[in-house]
Design brief:
Blueprint: E1 3-7, E2 10-13, E3 18-25, E4 33-39, E5 46-51, E6 58-60, E7 68-73, E8 78-83, E9 92-99, E10 116-117, E11 121-126
Parallel strand pairs: 2-11
Antiparallel strand pairs: 1-3, 3-8, 4-5, 4-9, 5-6, 7-8, 9-10, 9-11
Length: 127
């Protein structure tokens, strides 16, 4: 069993930066593909970014490509999401998730492929 806890959310202005962390306990994350998803009010949860177990492969949603960076520190059992040039449309609850997928593939964007989820952290970007 893996427990995931996100942190780092908050209220920022348009154009600001914010960094999220996802700390794991119960089992090492080093063999899991890790992903970030988000859910805005009244919308379905959507894929944001994913990173392979080794950290050498990443994948981003088009809406965040070039602005967000996913990374991981396996010895610290932590995954990060650095968000730059934030926009009001980035406002959402952000979730990290762990998947037993062996590598990054197009199905990595599917929520159904993830086995463990955190409770989420709120990010609000004011205009």
């Amino acid at each position: 069993q893996v427990q995931l806890v996100e942190s780092g959310g908050g209220l920022v202005q348009t154009g600001a930066s914010l960094g999220l962390s996802c700390a794991a306990s119960g089992r090492t994350l080093s063999t899991y593909v890790m992903g970030w998803f988000r859910q805005a009010p009244g919308k379905e949860r959507e894929f944001v970014a994913a990173i392979s177990w080794s950290g050498d492969s990443t994948y981003y949603a088009d809406s965040v490509k070039g602005r967000f960076t996913i990374s991981r520190d396996n010895p610290k059992n932590t995954v990060y999401l650095q968000m730059n040039t934030l926009k009001p449309e980035d406002t959402a609850v952000y979730y990290c998730a762990a998947s037993r997928l062996p590598r990054i593939t197009p199905i990595t964007t599917s929520q159904r492929r993830y086995d463990y989820w955190g409770q989420g952290t709120q990010v609000t970007v004011s205009s």
